[in-house]
Design brief:
It is a single chain. This protein is an alpha+beta fold. The protein has two domains: about 35 residues, no CATH class; about 100 residues, K homology (KH) domain (GMP Synthetase, Chain A, domain 3, 2-Layer Sandwich). It contains four helices and six strands, in the order E-E-E-H-H-E-E-H-H-E. It has a three-stranded antiparallel beta sheet with strand order 1-2-3.
Length: about 140
């Protein structure tokens, strides 16, 4: 399986602008720039896209692991927060934190915690990131 995204960048780092497109067409010439990455400009940025990928990947992995254990979630809501810091090596994504809450009938807290931790460690985007990955997981009723 291969997935593609492409970027066109024009100009210098601070004054330039770029656009991101995905093979699926969900993103098509979506604007990004220095301002959308390091300030609060309108558009997207690579870290936001990584956060979306991590939240989506984890939610699907968690659902899959729940299914293997005989549970079907009513809902899983996940937000990923990417932390980027300036290190000696330059700007580096150092952490991805997952905030997840899920409604799952007939599951106890111990099983919920074990399955969510397994999904956090096992989702392909978690394995891709060379960063600390933390999570707050809440079982709701």
């Amino acid at each position: 399986m291969k997935r593609k995204a492409s970027v066109v960048w024009k100009g210098s780092l601070k004054e330039g602008k770029g656009s991101i497109s995905t093979e699926s067409g969900v993103l098509k010439d979506t604007q990004y720039s220095f301002g959308t990455r390091f300030e609060s400009g309108l558009g997207t940025n690579p870290e936001e896209l990584i956060a979306a990928a991590h939240a989506g990947c984890f939610s699907m992995a968690f659902s899959a692991e729940l299914g293997k254990a005989g549970f079907t979630p009513d809902s899983i809501e996940t937000t990923a927060t990417i932390i980027m810091e300036k290190t000696d090596a330059g700007f580096t994504v150092t952490e991805s934190h997952l905030d997840m809450k899920a409604k799952i009938p007939n599951i106890d807290q111990e099983k919920f915690t074990a399955i969510s931790n397994g999904a956090k460690a096992g989702c392909p985007i978690s394995r891709l990131l060379n960063a600390k990955i933390t999570m707050d997981a809440k079982l709701i009723s």
